[in-house]
Amino acid sequence: MFVFKAAVVGAGTMGGEIAQVVASAGIPVVLKDVKQEFVDQGLAKARDVTQAQLAGLVAKEKITQEDADRQLEEILGRVQGTLDYEGFGDVDFVIEAVPERMEIKQAVFAELDAVTPGHAILASNTSSLSITEMGEATIRPDKVCGFHFFYPASMMRLIEVIEGEESSEETIQAAANLAQQIRKTAIRCGEAPGFVVNRILNSAVSEVWRVTEEEGLEVEAVDTVIKDSGTVPMGPFFLTDLLGLDTVLHVAEHLHESYGDRFFVSAQMKELVGAGNLGQKTGKGFYEHGN
């Protein structure tokens, strides 16, 4: 199946970037959220990312500023912001990117099942939750799969394509083909807590969290040491702020529940989330962030 039109539900941290990636590949995309301010934030993110990408090409003299201006309008012209499902009647592929709560995702999948054509694939950007349970909210579980981007979606090449118990081979292959169509690299994986990347990543990061708290270390110092090692572009605490502490905490708790004490849950992170300090999106997390 070739995707001629896509949709993204949830214009938050990832949604705007995902819509930008899809639009940059020449595919019209509908970007939906429940409030206009969220839609506007997603559209602004898509614009910022596109401008930065094109500015880099201009700086390298690969395109002219005139070309950049034209491409900017073309790409953003493919992204349609909306508060309802009116534009979903002819989509081929939907990417859900709402908060990591199963009850929210199941509600969205039930709505998508009712408003999209029968051939459309319904995919989730979840980083750890059950694809099978999401599929149970629809009458097309064979057309439900995971399609997990990594932050920032505009730069990270990898996508996890996750098979639920009812996902058909045709659905998984179509998702892998879309990943290639939007210039990403797909890895297929089964349905297990954390899938592939988060299970590996969190097994390492949880040890950083554990040592930081047990030894009473400063998060800034830990981030600096890890960043200066040259193995990663930023430290794990700063990355957590960018991803959203609530999202990261949910994944950490899910992995702890699934695999036991080898996956550590940061008490400091729980305290920050409890206080409403979720990282960059609220202006404060492990770090202070300017508006």
Q: What do you see in this structure?
A:
The chain has 291 residues and is α/β, with parallel strands linked by helices. It has two domains: 6-189, Rossmann fold (3-Layer(aba) Sandwich), CATH 3.40.50; 198-274, N-(1-d-carboxylethyl)-l-norvaline Dehydrogenase, domain 2. It contains eleven helices and eight strands. Strands 3-2-1-4-5-6-7-8 form an eight-stranded mixed β-sheet, sandwiched between helices. Strand 1, helix 1 (15-24) and strand 2 form a beta-alpha-beta unit. Helix 1 (15-24) packs across helix 2 and helix 2 (36-59) packs antiparallel against helix 3. 44% of the residues are buried.
Write the layout of secondary structure elements.
Blueprint: E1 6-9, H1 15-24, E2 29-32, H2 36-59, H3 65-77, E3 79-82, E4 93-96, H4 102-115, E5 121-124, H5 131-135, E6 144-148, E7 158-163, H6 169-181, E8 185-189, H7 197-215, H8 219-228, H9 236-243, H10 245-259, H11 267-274
Parallel strand pairs: 1-2, 1-4, 2-3, 4-5, 5-6, 7-8
Antiparallel strand pairs: 6-7
Helix pairs in contact: 1-2, 2-3
